[in-house]
Amino acid sequence: MNRKQCLLFILLLTTRIGETSKKFPLRAFVASTDIDNDTAHAIIEMLISMSFWGQETFRNGNGHFDVEFESNHVLSVCDEMKLGYMLMLAGTNFKNYGIYEDIANHMKMPLIDWEPSKSDYIANRSNIPMIFSVAPSAEQLLVDYIQYKCWRDIVYIHDGKNADRTLRTMFSYLHRKSPKYQLFVDNYVAPPDEEMFKEFLNEFHRRISTQHTLRSNDSSEEIDEPTPVNVIVDLEGSYRTRAFLRALEESVLVKKEYHYVFSNFEVDESDLTGFHFSLINITIFRIFDKNDKKFLRTRAEFHDVYRGGFSNTDSIPTAAAFAHDAILVAGKALQIAMDEHGKGIFDKSFVRHQLFNRGKKGLYCRPHEDQTETRQFESFEHGLKIAEAIKKVVLTEQDGTLTGRIQFDKVTGRRTNFSAEIVEIKPGVNSLNSIWERFQWAQDEGFLLGGEKYVQERKKDSSQTRKGILPSKPWKLRFNVVTVLVKPFVMLKRRNPGEPELKGNDRFEGYCIDLLNLLAKNITGFEYDVFISDGNKYGSRQADGSWDGMIGYLLNETADVAVAPLTITQERERAVDFSKPFMTTGISIMIKKPEKQEFNIFSFMEPLGMTIWIFTLSSYFGVSLTIFLVSWFSPYEKRIEFKRGEFTVTNEFTLYNSLWFTLAAFMQQGTDILPRAVSGRIASSCWWFFTLIIVSSYTANLAAFLTLERMTPPIESVEDLANQNKILYGVVEGGSTAAFFEDSIVPLYKKMWNFMVSTTQKQMELEKQSISNSTSNRIFVSSYADGIEKVRTSKGKYAFLLEETTNNYESGRRPCDTMKVGQNLNTLGYGIASKIGNPLRVSLNLAILYLSEKGELKKLENKWWYDRGQCDTGTSDGGTSSSLNLSKVAGIFYILLAGMVLSMCTALVEFLFRKNKENREKERNRMRNSRPQKPGIIASCERAKQKQHQNRRTKSEEVSTPRSTLF
């Protein structure tokens, strides 16, 4: 069989319901490019021979399979959909899983996978998964075994494809089970060529031996027992796993301190015959026992059906057994679907081997190939029903399965509630033969010894303490680190005159340089050389699919890692691997810092609004009138006075006195008159309470207002910016911020993008019409520096949208005329990039998490952003405290001066008025005295009038004198 051949099988699942025979076509895809020829051959035989097992497998002997196949490529899945099938069966790998996943989810075509799930267990998934894995994942079993052995340090050898997903799933399960359990992982990537396994293992064992020798020399105490080396081997496929075993058997320096654990289910006891007399410890996991009588009987039947391919002594590969059970799952799922939705649910779906979906021929995952012009894009109408049925499938060995109980997680589609057997090979103590131990494990139950659940005892960790977080020992001991010059992440050091020229890594300083130093201290053997990306480019995808900048350096292996403010984006994640974010940021708004608030001479009135002042003045006149009225009508406010031998009734609360009394109370002053009546006292008490609150509030606000210099920005949020047109705003043209607005589905951000685009078009039209020849008016800029400079020179008429880290840094640098307003528009992360499959990624992840937990990353941020700031940050409420100067309170001095002048003018008017009145009185008396005496009656009348006038004058003068007698 050609290794590069990909095989496509068409299986017709035939079930008989009543007297009616129904055929349902399936598709099974076997890609022999990713598995060895023997395994592919066995899978093909297993699929074909299912026609023999049909009578035994399905209930009442109602089913059998008709099988035929043809050669094709895995991408022909879409072509086969034109004829149609009920569901797919395949053995996916990390190269083609994405294709199957997209087709299954997009077309709603269920896929039964006989390989372990490639999906992320902790990722958010649909309620109805479309991919179901018959082969279980071993992460939970692996974590239980590590805890059972009380291991704290492990070496993880992998293909570089599944390491991130496997470790993430393992640590997630470990955290849920034992939050305080610490596990340190040392990563190695196995060579892609199996012929290099032996050289790889020899070099690996030499390094371990050298490290043990160095620790023995450095230690003051002699180390008798070598440190255990626990190695987890996670390779894809049985072919590579068996090749690794053969290389391990031939490798040198393998001693009893090594313990190799093979985490997949591809290894059988027959593969371990060469280790009967070995000193090495080996553990394998088995999903089923190939020496079981039932399995041997099945193998004999398999041999009888397909004699040409295998002898009766050949073992069935594990993948072939999973393929066998995958077809059982398919048949059971279709039966469940017909039982739930009616026996005739699929009657009209297939006619003469042609699928009719919603009454029309075929399925088209490439809509442009559909010749039916009136049909819109449609998914498989029965796909969700079949997927729901697969979720309900429960098969056991009584149903004919070869790999035990089969049941699927209803959310992820992974196999669940399964059990496995652990086989351990240990060196013999008193004999040359190795010791073989077996025990059982069940999911969510743990290890079972003697039919009982094994309870783990806490053991003392005897492993040696190592430097740093994880003892990473990559193949390449010195790494090339690419970066870009961006303040304050990476900057060139300033060299003072007379100092020697700086070389190597000493030329640079900044946040990222300090971060690299911390990583080197916490990852053993991490040494690096820093260089700058050509053109200071981060990395963007070109028209021909290539990448420039730092991403390009990683892809062509000029650099090993990129340490810079490199944003983790979906497009970049497809090209390189990113570590955990070492800093989070987001798009923010930068504006020119507003000028300090100018104070006018009447600033003392601003603590209270104009409405409050008007209502307070109205209240003053209203209360004065109320006191005057209640005093006038109340009999208890009347006073009886005895003056000059007669009694008079008076009331002190005249309208003039009422106004004076109310004003004195408001000014916190006293008067000589007080209300006697209860009604008057009630009105006065309410007014006093009112003045207490008003005066206290005014005093408090006045103190804060006059001593705090506030700088009120014209906008305070992104909503304010989008809902006005006086302040223009823009981004760096072609940058990630521009891509964020362009691709956003948020209405507010789409509105802002449309505004920026339309404004730019208008400005370009004006330039073409020679109305404006300068491009400085454009809102899109070519770099951060141009955008920041535009903010500073636009006199508050331009806002720049950029990442928060740069915004905060520039706001703290001279000339201190920019500021950030509002919250971040989104959340971004800066990560360390490396080529996909680089084993250093996991070490970097754990180191970054460690530094974050210890607060080291926060210290670095404070050091480069705030501790070295050149601007006064002021108080937290946006103002700066200052002394009280004359410009803030000049108004009260003007009022005092105006009051004094008005008082003097009033006194002068009163004096002149009184003087004029007295002169008129004298003139009148003189004229009267100069007249001749009149007859007795007339003279008597004039004397009476004169006496009455004198009495009135005397009474008016006595108002201000002390009262004589009161009753």
TrEMBL record:
Keyword Transferase: no
Superkingdom of the organism of origin: Eukaryota
Binding site for L-glutamate: P565, T567, R572, S736, T737, E803
Annotated localization: Postsynaptic cell membrane
Residue ranges constituting the Ionotropic glutamate receptor C-terminal domain according to the UniProt record: 478-867
DNA repair recorded as keyword: no
Record protein name field: Protein CBR-GLR-2
Species, as recorded: Caenorhabditis briggsae
Gene name linked to the record: glr-2
